[in-house]
Design brief:
The chain has 404 residues and is mainly beta. Helices cover 9% and strands 49% of the residues.
Length: 404
Protein backbone atom coordinates (compact mmCIF):
# COMPACT_ATOMS: atom_id res chain seq x y z
CA UNK A 1 0.00 0.00 0.00
CA UNK A 2 2.81 2.38 0.94
CA UNK A 3 4.53 1.59 -2.36
CA UNK A 4 1.35 2.43 -4.28
CA UNK A 5 0.97 5.74 -2.40
CA UNK A 6 4.64 6.61 -3.03
CA UNK A 7 4.32 5.74 -6.72
CA UNK A 8 1.20 7.88 -7.00
CA UNK A 9 2.95 10.82 -5.34
CA UNK A 10 5.98 10.49 -7.64
CA UNK A 11 3.75 10.31 -10.73
CA UNK A 12 1.81 13.39 -9.60
CA UNK A 13 5.03 15.32 -8.97
CA UNK A 14 6.41 14.32 -12.35
CA UNK A 15 3.18 15.35 -14.06
CA UNK A 16 3.29 18.68 -12.25
CA UNK A 17 6.89 19.27 -13.28
CA UNK A 18 6.16 18.40 -16.92
CA UNK A 19 3.10 20.65 -16.95
CA UNK A 20 5.10 23.46 -15.36
CA UNK A 21 7.90 23.03 -17.87
CA UNK A 22 5.40 23.03 -20.74
CA UNK A 23 3.75 26.16 -19.36
CA UNK A 24 7.11 27.92 -19.03
CA UNK A 25 8.31 27.07 -22.54
CA UNK A 26 10.09 30.04 -24.03
CA UNK A 27 12.18 30.91 -27.07
CA UNK A 28 14.45 33.73 -28.19
CA UNK A 29 15.45 34.18 -31.83
CA UNK A 30 18.31 36.23 -33.28
CA UNK A 31 17.52 37.43 -36.80
CA UNK A 32 18.66 40.04 -39.28
CA UNK A 33 19.15 41.36 -42.81
CA UNK A 34 22.38 42.45 -44.50
CA UNK A 35 21.92 44.38 -47.77
CA UNK A 36 24.40 46.37 -49.82
CA UNK A 37 24.77 47.57 -53.42
CA UNK A 38 25.26 50.64 -55.54
CA UNK A 39 23.11 53.19 -57.36
CA UNK A 40 23.35 55.62 -60.27
CA UNK A 41 21.34 58.85 -60.25
CA UNK A 42 21.28 61.06 -63.34
CA UNK A 43 20.52 64.43 -61.75
CA UNK A 44 21.21 65.47 -58.14
CA UNK A 45 20.85 69.04 -56.92
CA UNK A 46 24.19 70.44 -55.66
CA UNK A 47 22.49 72.02 -52.65
CA UNK A 48 19.08 72.24 -51.01
CA UNK A 49 16.80 74.48 -53.01
CA UNK A 50 18.97 74.54 -56.13
CA UNK A 51 17.04 74.79 -59.38
CA UNK A 52 19.89 74.13 -61.78
CA UNK A 53 23.36 72.67 -61.93
CA UNK A 54 22.44 69.06 -61.19
CA UNK A 55 25.04 66.37 -61.77
CA UNK A 56 25.01 62.60 -62.05
CA UNK A 57 26.06 60.51 -59.06
CA UNK A 58 27.28 56.96 -58.53
CA UNK A 59 27.31 55.82 -54.92
CA UNK A 60 27.19 52.79 -52.68
CA UNK A 61 23.65 52.22 -51.43
CA UNK A 62 23.02 50.13 -48.33
CA UNK A 63 19.72 48.63 -47.24
CA UNK A 64 17.89 49.23 -50.53
CA UNK A 65 15.85 46.03 -50.87
CA UNK A 66 15.47 45.69 -47.12
CA UNK A 67 16.85 47.90 -44.37
CA UNK A 68 19.94 46.49 -42.65
CA UNK A 69 19.07 45.24 -39.18
CA UNK A 70 19.56 42.68 -36.47
CA UNK A 71 17.10 41.88 -33.75
CA UNK A 72 15.91 39.66 -30.96
CA UNK A 73 12.36 38.38 -30.69
CA UNK A 74 10.98 35.95 -28.18
CA UNK A 75 7.98 34.49 -26.43
CA UNK A 76 7.11 32.67 -23.22
CA UNK A 77 4.09 30.45 -22.79
CA UNK A 78 2.18 31.67 -19.74
CA UNK A 79 -0.54 29.03 -19.96
CA UNK A 80 -4.19 29.29 -20.91
CA UNK A 81 -3.27 30.19 -24.49
CA UNK A 82 -1.48 33.37 -23.44
CA UNK A 83 2.12 34.22 -24.32
CA UNK A 84 4.45 37.05 -23.35
CA UNK A 85 6.20 38.42 -26.46
CA UNK A 86 8.88 41.00 -27.23
CA UNK A 87 10.94 42.43 -30.11
CA UNK A 88 14.13 44.52 -30.04
CA UNK A 89 15.39 45.58 -33.49
CA UNK A 90 18.40 47.71 -34.36
CA UNK A 91 19.21 49.21 -37.77
CA UNK A 92 22.76 49.81 -38.98
CA UNK A 93 24.72 51.23 -41.89
CA UNK A 94 26.76 48.45 -43.46
CA UNK A 95 29.06 50.91 -45.22
CA UNK A 96 30.56 52.28 -42.02
CA UNK A 97 29.09 50.21 -39.19
CA UNK A 98 27.20 53.08 -37.55
CA UNK A 99 23.66 53.07 -36.21
CA UNK A 100 20.95 53.88 -38.74
CA UNK A 101 19.69 56.56 -36.36
CA UNK A 102 22.38 58.04 -34.13
CA UNK A 103 21.72 57.75 -30.42
CA UNK A 104 18.97 55.12 -30.69
CA UNK A 105 20.01 51.58 -29.88
CA UNK A 106 16.80 49.86 -31.00
CA UNK A 107 15.26 52.54 -33.17
CA UNK A 108 13.42 50.16 -35.53
CA UNK A 109 11.38 48.38 -32.85
CA UNK A 110 11.42 48.02 -29.08
CA UNK A 111 8.29 46.61 -27.48
CA UNK A 112 6.85 44.01 -25.11
CA UNK A 113 3.36 42.60 -24.78
CA UNK A 114 0.90 39.74 -24.42
CA UNK A 115 -0.87 37.69 -27.08
CA UNK A 116 -3.75 35.23 -26.97
CA UNK A 117 -5.35 33.48 -29.94
CA UNK A 118 -8.84 34.14 -28.59
CA UNK A 119 -8.47 37.71 -27.31
CA UNK A 120 -5.81 39.32 -29.53
CA UNK A 121 -2.48 41.05 -28.91
CA UNK A 122 -1.47 44.06 -26.81
CA UNK A 123 2.02 45.56 -27.16
CA UNK A 124 3.75 48.59 -25.61
CA UNK A 125 6.85 50.51 -26.70
CA UNK A 126 8.33 51.89 -29.93
CA UNK A 127 6.53 50.28 -32.84
CA UNK A 128 4.72 50.67 -36.14
CA UNK A 129 1.17 51.99 -36.23
CA UNK A 130 -1.78 49.85 -37.41
CA UNK A 131 -2.03 52.15 -40.46
CA UNK A 132 1.28 50.76 -41.72
CA UNK A 133 1.04 47.22 -40.33
CA UNK A 134 -2.33 46.29 -41.86
CA UNK A 135 -1.92 48.20 -45.15
CA UNK A 136 1.66 47.05 -45.82
CA UNK A 137 0.94 43.67 -47.52
CA UNK A 138 -0.22 45.61 -50.60
CA UNK A 139 2.16 48.55 -50.27
CA UNK A 140 4.25 49.40 -53.36
CA UNK A 141 7.36 48.69 -51.26
CA UNK A 142 6.64 44.94 -51.12
CA UNK A 143 8.11 44.30 -54.60
CA UNK A 144 9.58 47.68 -55.54
CA UNK A 145 11.37 48.50 -52.25
CA UNK A 146 10.98 51.72 -50.29
CA UNK A 147 14.16 53.32 -51.63
CA UNK A 148 12.90 53.19 -55.24
CA UNK A 149 9.26 52.14 -55.05
CA UNK A 150 7.69 54.08 -52.18
CA UNK A 151 5.39 56.78 -53.47
CA UNK A 152 7.57 59.89 -54.06
CA UNK A 153 9.15 61.00 -50.79
CA UNK A 154 7.11 58.31 -49.01
CA UNK A 155 4.54 61.08 -48.63
CA UNK A 156 1.94 58.60 -47.34
CA UNK A 157 4.06 56.52 -44.91
CA UNK A 158 3.52 53.21 -46.67
CA UNK A 159 7.22 52.44 -46.10
CA UNK A 160 8.84 51.75 -42.70
CA UNK A 161 10.07 55.30 -42.03
CA UNK A 162 7.72 56.10 -39.15
CA UNK A 163 7.68 54.35 -35.78
CA UNK A 164 5.83 55.88 -32.85
CA UNK A 165 7.31 56.06 -29.34
CA UNK A 166 5.32 55.38 -26.17
CA UNK A 167 2.75 53.35 -28.10
CA UNK A 168 -0.05 51.08 -26.95
CA UNK A 169 -1.23 48.84 -29.81
CA UNK A 170 -4.13 46.36 -29.75
CA UNK A 171 -4.69 43.93 -32.62
CA UNK A 172 -7.72 41.64 -32.67
CA UNK A 173 -7.71 37.96 -33.54
CA UNK A 174 -8.46 37.29 -37.21
CA UNK A 175 -12.11 36.23 -37.50
CA UNK A 176 -13.47 35.14 -40.88
CA UNK A 177 -10.57 36.94 -42.54
CA UNK A 178 -11.11 40.25 -40.71
CA UNK A 179 -8.45 41.84 -38.46
CA UNK A 180 -8.86 45.12 -36.56
CA UNK A 181 -6.15 47.17 -34.86
CA UNK A 182 -5.85 50.46 -33.00
CA UNK A 183 -3.05 52.40 -31.30
CA UNK A 184 -2.37 55.46 -29.19
CA UNK A 185 1.08 56.97 -28.65
CA UNK A 186 1.40 59.23 -25.65
CA UNK A 187 3.03 62.61 -26.29
CA UNK A 188 4.25 63.16 -22.75
CA UNK A 189 3.79 66.95 -22.95
CA UNK A 190 3.06 68.66 -19.62
CA UNK A 191 -0.21 70.57 -19.78
CA UNK A 192 -1.42 68.95 -22.99
CA UNK A 193 -2.68 65.42 -23.51
CA UNK A 194 -2.85 65.91 -27.29
CA UNK A 195 0.49 67.56 -28.14
CA UNK A 196 3.07 65.08 -29.42
CA UNK A 197 0.59 62.22 -29.57
CA UNK A 198 -0.14 59.82 -32.41
CA UNK A 199 -3.19 57.65 -32.92
CA UNK A 200 -4.07 55.15 -35.60
CA UNK A 201 -6.79 52.65 -36.53
CA UNK A 202 -6.99 50.14 -39.36
CA UNK A 203 -8.90 47.11 -40.65
CA UNK A 204 -7.74 44.30 -42.92
CA UNK A 205 -9.74 41.62 -44.73
CA UNK A 206 -8.38 38.56 -46.52
CA UNK A 207 -10.46 35.97 -48.38
CA UNK A 208 -8.75 33.59 -50.78
CA UNK A 209 -7.05 35.59 -53.55
CA UNK A 210 -8.53 38.90 -52.33
CA UNK A 211 -7.03 41.21 -49.74
CA UNK A 212 -7.95 44.75 -48.75
CA UNK A 213 -7.11 47.13 -45.91
CA UNK A 214 -8.03 50.66 -44.84
CA UNK A 215 -6.53 52.84 -42.12
CA UNK A 216 -5.94 56.29 -40.69
CA UNK A 217 -2.95 57.79 -38.87
CA UNK A 218 -2.96 61.14 -37.07
CA UNK A 219 0.27 62.75 -35.82
CA UNK A 220 0.08 65.82 -33.56
CA UNK A 221 3.16 68.00 -33.21
CA UNK A 222 4.51 68.78 -29.78
CA UNK A 223 6.17 71.89 -28.40
CA UNK A 224 9.60 70.24 -28.50
CA UNK A 225 12.11 71.75 -30.85
CA UNK A 226 9.89 74.15 -32.75
CA UNK A 227 8.22 76.74 -30.53
CA UNK A 228 4.50 76.16 -30.27
CA UNK A 229 4.75 73.17 -32.59
CA UNK A 230 7.69 70.87 -33.25
CA UNK A 231 9.72 70.32 -36.38
CA UNK A 232 9.72 66.98 -38.18
CA UNK A 233 11.70 64.06 -36.79
CA UNK A 234 11.73 60.30 -37.31
CA UNK A 235 12.84 59.51 -33.77
CA UNK A 236 10.22 61.06 -31.49
CA UNK A 237 6.55 61.88 -31.16
CA UNK A 238 7.25 65.57 -31.79
CA UNK A 239 4.98 65.65 -34.81
CA UNK A 240 7.18 63.08 -36.47
CA UNK A 241 7.01 63.61 -40.22
CA UNK A 242 8.18 60.26 -41.59
CA UNK A 243 10.46 61.70 -44.28
CA UNK A 244 11.24 65.23 -45.36
CA UNK A 245 11.52 65.42 -49.16
CA UNK A 246 11.06 67.71 -52.13
CA UNK A 247 7.31 67.15 -51.78
CA UNK A 248 6.75 68.27 -48.18
CA UNK A 249 9.77 70.47 -47.50
CA UNK A 250 7.51 73.51 -47.15
CA UNK A 251 5.29 71.86 -44.51
CA UNK A 252 7.89 71.03 -41.85
CA UNK A 253 6.21 73.10 -39.14
CA UNK A 254 2.73 71.67 -39.53
CA UNK A 255 0.60 71.51 -36.40
CA UNK A 256 -0.54 68.05 -37.38
CA UNK A 257 -0.50 65.46 -40.14
CA UNK A 258 -3.21 63.01 -41.10
CA UNK A 259 -2.99 60.07 -43.49
CA UNK A 260 -5.91 58.01 -44.76
CA UNK A 261 -5.10 55.02 -46.93
CA UNK A 262 -6.65 52.04 -48.71
CA UNK A 263 -4.62 49.20 -50.20
CA UNK A 264 -5.68 45.93 -51.76
CA UNK A 265 -4.63 43.10 -54.01
CA UNK A 266 -5.75 40.13 -56.06
CA UNK A 267 -3.78 36.91 -56.66
CA UNK A 268 -4.87 36.03 -60.20
CA UNK A 269 -2.67 32.93 -60.42
CA UNK A 270 0.04 31.42 -58.19
CA UNK A 271 2.58 33.41 -60.21
CA UNK A 272 0.78 36.70 -60.95
CA UNK A 273 -0.77 39.29 -58.65
CA UNK A 274 -1.80 42.95 -58.69
CA UNK A 275 -1.88 45.44 -55.81
CA UNK A 276 -3.40 48.93 -55.76
CA UNK A 277 -3.37 51.83 -53.30
CA UNK A 278 -4.96 55.20 -52.63
CA UNK A 279 -3.89 57.67 -49.94
CA UNK A 280 -4.94 61.12 -48.79
CA UNK A 281 -2.35 63.13 -46.79
CA UNK A 282 -3.15 66.39 -45.00
CA UNK A 283 -0.79 68.90 -43.38
CA UNK A 284 -2.54 71.19 -40.88
CA UNK A 285 -0.95 74.64 -40.28
CA UNK A 286 -0.03 75.93 -36.82
CA UNK A 287 1.22 79.20 -35.34
CA UNK A 288 4.82 78.61 -36.48
CA UNK A 289 4.02 77.10 -39.87
CA UNK A 290 5.41 78.63 -43.05
CA UNK A 291 2.04 77.98 -44.72
CA UNK A 292 -1.45 79.21 -43.83
CA UNK A 293 -3.89 76.77 -45.45
CA UNK A 294 -4.22 73.02 -45.13
CA UNK A 295 -2.09 71.21 -47.72
CA UNK A 296 -3.48 68.02 -49.26
CA UNK A 297 -1.76 65.31 -51.32
CA UNK A 298 -3.69 62.50 -53.06
CA UNK A 299 -1.78 59.50 -54.42
CA UNK A 300 -2.94 56.61 -56.63
CA UNK A 301 -0.71 53.62 -57.30
CA UNK A 302 -0.60 50.11 -58.77
CA UNK A 303 2.00 47.31 -58.88
CA UNK A 304 2.10 44.20 -61.10
CA UNK A 305 4.14 41.25 -59.82
CA UNK A 306 5.04 38.16 -61.86
CA UNK A 307 6.99 35.17 -60.59
CA UNK A 308 8.57 34.29 -63.92
CA UNK A 309 10.47 31.27 -62.55
CA UNK A 310 10.82 29.75 -59.08
CA UNK A 311 13.93 31.91 -58.63
CA UNK A 312 12.99 35.10 -60.52
CA UNK A 313 10.47 37.77 -59.48
CA UNK A 314 9.65 40.67 -61.80
CA UNK A 315 7.57 43.71 -60.87
CA UNK A 316 6.57 47.09 -62.22
CA UNK A 317 4.68 49.96 -60.62
CA UNK A 318 3.19 53.36 -61.40
CA UNK A 319 2.01 56.11 -59.06
CA UNK A 320 0.46 59.54 -59.50
CA UNK A 321 0.57 62.14 -56.70
CA UNK A 322 -1.38 65.38 -56.91
CA UNK A 323 -1.14 68.29 -54.45
CA UNK A 324 -4.09 70.63 -54.02
CA UNK A 325 -3.84 74.36 -54.76
CA UNK A 326 -3.16 76.29 -51.53
CA UNK A 327 -0.77 78.80 -49.92
CA UNK A 328 -0.18 80.81 -53.06
CA UNK A 329 0.26 77.79 -55.32
CA UNK A 330 -1.76 78.29 -58.50
CA UNK A 331 -0.70 75.02 -60.16
CA UNK A 332 -0.64 72.18 -57.64
CA UNK A 333 2.41 69.91 -57.83
CA UNK A 334 2.07 66.59 -59.63
CA UNK A 335 4.45 63.65 -59.51
CA UNK A 336 4.37 60.63 -61.82
CA UNK A 337 6.66 57.73 -60.96
CA UNK A 338 7.50 54.46 -62.74
CA UNK A 339 9.61 51.75 -61.08
CA UNK A 340 10.77 48.26 -62.19
CA UNK A 341 12.42 45.55 -60.11
CA UNK A 342 14.14 42.22 -60.82
CA UNK A 343 14.83 39.89 -57.90
CA UNK A 344 16.77 36.65 -58.36
CA UNK A 345 16.94 34.19 -55.45
CA UNK A 346 20.19 32.27 -55.08
CA UNK A 347 18.74 30.46 -52.07
CA UNK A 348 15.98 30.94 -49.50
CA UNK A 349 18.15 33.54 -47.75
CA UNK A 350 20.27 35.20 -50.42
CA UNK A 351 19.31 37.10 -53.59
CA UNK A 352 20.50 39.59 -56.18
CA UNK A 353 18.29 42.52 -57.16
CA UNK A 354 18.20 45.26 -59.80
CA UNK A 355 15.98 48.37 -59.71
CA UNK A 356 15.13 51.21 -62.09
CA UNK A 357 13.02 54.28 -61.29
CA UNK A 358 11.91 57.49 -62.99
CA UNK A 359 9.89 60.42 -61.64
CA UNK A 360 8.52 63.44 -63.48
CA UNK A 361 7.34 66.48 -61.51
CA UNK A 362 5.09 69.32 -62.69
CA UNK A 363 3.38 72.27 -61.09
CA UNK A 364 4.37 74.23 -57.99
CA UNK A 365 5.09 73.58 -54.33
CA UNK A 366 6.61 75.40 -51.31
CA UNK A 367 10.23 75.60 -50.20
CA UNK A 368 11.31 75.46 -46.54
CA UNK A 369 10.67 79.19 -46.15
CA UNK A 370 7.15 79.00 -47.53
CA UNK A 371 8.01 80.44 -50.94
CA UNK A 372 6.33 79.13 -54.09
CA UNK A 373 8.77 77.25 -56.36
CA UNK A 374 8.63 74.81 -59.27
CA UNK A 375 8.21 71.23 -58.07
CA UNK A 376 11.30 69.05 -58.47
CA UNK A 377 11.52 65.28 -58.75
CA UNK A 378 12.53 62.62 -56.26
CA UNK A 379 12.28 58.82 -56.47
CA UNK A 380 10.86 56.68 -53.67
CA UNK A 381 12.32 57.62 -50.30
CA UNK A 382 15.92 56.63 -50.96
CA UNK A 383 16.78 60.00 -52.51
CA UNK A 384 15.06 62.40 -50.12
CA UNK A 385 18.40 63.92 -49.16
CA UNK A 386 19.55 64.21 -52.78
CA UNK A 387 16.57 65.29 -54.92
CA UNK A 388 16.79 66.33 -58.53
CA UNK A 389 17.56 69.92 -59.50
CA UNK A 390 14.96 69.70 -62.26
CA UNK A 391 11.55 68.32 -63.13
CA UNK A 392 12.83 64.79 -63.80
CA UNK A 393 14.99 62.15 -62.16
CA UNK A 394 16.22 58.68 -63.17
CA UNK A 395 17.97 56.17 -60.93
CA UNK A 396 19.15 52.58 -61.22
CA UNK A 397 20.63 50.29 -58.61
CA UNK A 398 21.75 46.74 -57.93
CA UNK A 399 22.75 44.81 -54.85
CA UNK A 400 22.76 41.64 -52.81
CA UNK A 401 20.59 40.89 -49.78
CA UNK A 402 21.08 38.12 -47.20
CA UNK A 403 18.72 37.17 -44.39
CA UNK A 404 19.65 35.24 -41.27
Amino acid sequence: MKKKVLATMVAAAATSLVAGAAQAQSSVTLYGIVDNGFAYVNNVAPSTGATSGGKSLVKMNNGVWAGNRFGLKGSEDLGGGTKAIFTLEQGFNIMNGTQSTAGLEFHRQAWVGLTNDAFGTVTMGRQYTPYYTLLSPWSPTTWLTGAFGAHPGDIDSLDTNYRANNSFVYTSPTINGLTLSGSYSMGGEAGSFNAGSTWSAAAQYKNGPLGIAAGVQRVNNSAAGGGAWGSFSTVSNAGSQPAVSALNNGYQLAQGQQRIGVTGGWQFTPTFDVSVSYTNVQYVPGVNSKFASEAVFNTYGAVLHWKATPALDLAGGYSYTKAAKANGVTDGAQYQQIVFSQYYSLSKRTAFYVLEGYTRANGQTLNANGGVIDATATIGDGFNGSPSSSRSMFAAGAGIVHRF
